[in-house]
Amino acid sequence: MYNFKLLISLLLISLIVKKQRLILSIGKNIRLERIFDRTSKRTIIIPMDHGLTMGTIKGLENVAQMVDKVALGGANAVLMHSGMVGIGHRQYGKDIGLIIHLSGATNLSPDPNRKVLVCSVERALKMGADAISIHINIGADEEPDMLQDASNVVEKSREWGIPLLTMMYPRGKKINDENDPEVVNIAVRVGVELGADIVKTNYTGDIDSFKNIIDGVKPIPVIIAGGPKMDTIPDLLQMVYDSIQAGSAGVAFGRNVFQSDDPTKLVSAISKIVHKNYNIEEVLKEFNFN
Question: In the predicted model, what is the mean pLDDT of residues 28-47?
Fold first, then answer.
């Protein structure tokens, strides 16, 4: 009789655990659908977290206004620090996903490459986040600390069923070229090994090398960063197109979008490539970019 009761108890516990996992899985999937296009399975994210690092910069003087512009263009989500969520929340206009960034450092820090946690997973959830993100510089002196922080965030994200985007950048004394396929490969793989749901990284500069990196971590989606503002919009769109050909799941462009002359138009053009599979000639012709 005792063994039978124990067996029943174990079965009940197992069912409860499975139900809880199912609930968390459903919650994560629902949130992912808020930041990924349901048809293309890709995303356009506009990071606006630069203020913590650089202060007020061109394009982010009025965050709510910029959120509205990129939402009109078809961006799937914006990314910002928790303190800016209330400022950026418009209460009007087209809906857009919200990713709250948990880590940061200022340019005035002794080592700006050392990112520390400045927001908790629970706080992000309370503020309405559809996903959270963290920044890890692979190769930095403080890489071990950032990896440890990431491990803790991964556990919390799984506990609450919220998607985690890891920004994985090769930066440090051993890194001569941040776009080198060898170091980008390590950075991306680390993000996936840690348990990220989405990985953001540098584009390597050519389709074949980036495809090899993406193929090695499927089915985890990999998206590309924009980095410093590029010289021309056609160059930017070419990078978007090439990354999609390599199998990327989209882009996360900040300064290249919000410091452009017409952010709404540029996001619309990017959307045609990311979500509608336009080629460069088609998008340049439709939007008349020089």
Answer: 96
